[in-house]
């Protein structure tokens, strides 16, 4: 089955589309990457997302405009992927949508809202669409995240020791496969969220992120600021736990800066980069991680990658590309896998990953132009993900 996965993370920098041929083969799920592309949001949609995200207040009219604008942007990207990557032929689109709110109270997820009306995608491609994958896990008592845990677990199963997958998006999340324990997945804290917020603030919007980590590279870590930032109780909480930009946003950083003698801008950026490295490393150490497979936009920041390596001596770091999953496309491919599991009647999350009471079938399905025909339910879930060519 050819599946197109669509993803935009908390950084809302671009919509990633990735196509793959997926086949169940006994215990294995075979994944052949077909190609991927990245499409920036139209300026007006991106602007509306930026002015609507917490801590902003909004109106239902804006929510409607966002649901439509994001849905149309995803639809354009899906149509492009169908044309440019798949020569016009695919079976299914899976859309993550754009997270606008991940509602966490006392460590429990009460709701999660991904916008991007799937009707636009179905209309633009003629294909059935699986969307809203997180809500069902939340309804089953889970965090609704990190949903890449299923794909990560199937992928890491072939590796020795205690491997972990780390994604460095706006938020950093890990999936850990420690021997003798159930697979575990959680958000470690911010990856780029605070760093991007600081860059955008200090450059008055001229830069979106610290390209190549150049500014952090010439800055010096402020021990006082790092101490204040590390004092957040989120880092001490046990998994399962998830977070988002509802917590790690510019006012959060400004409160921390108010508590210390204000460092120079490059020092702030160096400190925030170190914060990500320290919190990722603490999380990995707590679970005995012996090797790390890394993906996400943060892998393009060599200063961040170096700091993570420094904080985890003896733990080899490599990009997911080394296992056959391009680090830019890994999350979009992971969502393609989730939609594939859904239409085969297989759960896309598991209790030790999200904290849900049970492994639920995820998502909502929007029919394409033809009547909806689902494959025969699979007899059993796969235990291994094999990347093929
Ligand atoms: N060349 C680069 N140098 C430094 N950081 C980068 C670079 N490219 C991307 N990033 C970081 O990665 C982020 C986007 O990563 P991504 O995985 O798309 O996150 P998300 O899933 O939250 O959208 C950017 O906001 C930026 O912080
Ligand atoms: Mg992104």
Describe the protein.
The chain is 36% helix and 23% strand. It folds into two domains: 2-144 and 327-387, ATPase, nucleotide binding domain (Nucleotidyltransferase, domain 5); 150-323, 2-Layer Sandwich (Nucleotidyltransferase, domain 5). The model has no long low-confidence stretch (mean pLDDT 97). The radius of gyration is 20 Å and the shape is globular. Helix 8 crosses helix 10 (265-286). The longest helix has 25 residues, at 60-84. It has 389 residues and is of the alpha/beta class. Strands 1, 2, 3, 4, 5, 6, 12 and 13 form an eight-stranded mixed β-sheet that branches. The chain has a five-stranded mixed β-sheet with strand order 9-8-7-10-11. It has helices at residues 43-52, 60-84, 118-125, 133-139, 149-156, 193-202, 214-218, 223-230, 250-258, 265-286, 302-311, 330-343, 351-354, and strands at residues 2-8, 14-25, 28-40, 92-105, 108-115, 129-131, 163-168, 171-176, 184-190, 291-295, 317-319, 364-366, 384-387. The structure holds adenosine-5'-diphosphate and magnesium ion. Residues 8-9, 11, 13-14, 297 line the site of magnesium ion. ATP binds at residues 9-16. Pathway: Amino-sugar metabolism; 1,6-anhydro-N-acetylmuramate degradation; Cell wall biogenesis; peptidoglycan recycling. Keywords: ATP-binding, Carbohydrate metabolism, Kinase, Nucleotide-binding, Transferase. Its EC number is 2.7.1.170. One of its GO terms (molecular function) is kinase activity.
